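Hello support,

Our group uses your service weekly, and this is the first time we've seen a run hang past the timeout. The protein is PepSY domain-containing protein. I'm not sure whether the cause is the sequence or the server load. Input pasted verbatim:
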Amino acid sequence: MKLAYQWHGRFGWVLAPLLAIQALGGAALLWMQPLPAPQESPPAVQAWAQAVDQGLAELARRYPTAKFEYVNLPGKADAPVSVRLLASESNESGWAEVDALHGTAGALQPDSSQARTLLYGLHERLLLADVGPWLLRAIALTALVLVAMGLRVWWRVRHLPARTPWRRLHRLVGPVVVLPLAMMLVTGFVLRSPDWARAALSAWPGQAAAAPSVAAPAASGPQAATLGQALAAAATALPQARPIRIYPPRNGVVRVRMRGDEWHPIGLNNVFVSAADASVLRIVRAAEQPLSVRYLNVVYPLHIGSLPGSPGLGATLAARVLWTLLALALAGLALTGAVQRLRTK
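Update from on-call engineer: The timeout came from a worker crash unrelated to the input. Re-ran successfully.
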């Protein structure tokens, strides 16, 4: 027990600021997400299709050397369509909004002017480029070991009086939130290690048979169909799902990502449309995805506090408040632990 106590304190105060930054940054990102409408409107596919074509054409004229990474479709009929533009010779990467009713594109909002982009970079990479995910994996694994050590120490000293208010608070908060915090750490580690997760789950028995058998698309000519036409074709082919995101043509195929009744907020259904004539080449439903993809239907929503189905405003707010309290608890544990460690030096 003494060994667990010593290493829990030694590692804990070092990780305290990083854990607090991750927890508070994640909570801030959660509240930056748009809240659902009181009643979800049906997809305005035809209006979105026209707006996507007009907006992309305008953005191509305005930023001829830029490339778009994907198009996000709104949750409400009157909300704007968002276009992610990658860096060009004269502009950095950023977002542009397209009016869903008139198809007019707004000005490019560069990443450097977006607080959300900065927080994403901090939360997902610690602003350290390729080194960031490796450091975050190490932090998550070390924090899980600290959780186990802390529980062992708490079990042995739970009946002893705490010598300081900081220690008393640390003992009270830790056991209450330890399981949700462990879940946050595990899901965060998995999300920061997608290649490892896919490799491990692909090796699961029976996964070769679970993956859908899909024939390679036939060779096609130059792109003749617009992304709006591809969107309309995908919505017609899978009417029970809602279009969420459109990816640019790749090897003559446009991928439209759609959400049905799965838990994942962006959806795991994919409709592949020919860029030559907007014909539907294949549909890969969420249930047909291999386990190496389906795991995201649980891991990602758990990490971000997303509720299954189409939750109302009240349920969404309740989930965000709960996840924010968990983030504050993690930051509080890091703070109280660090204070105790510094006072004993």
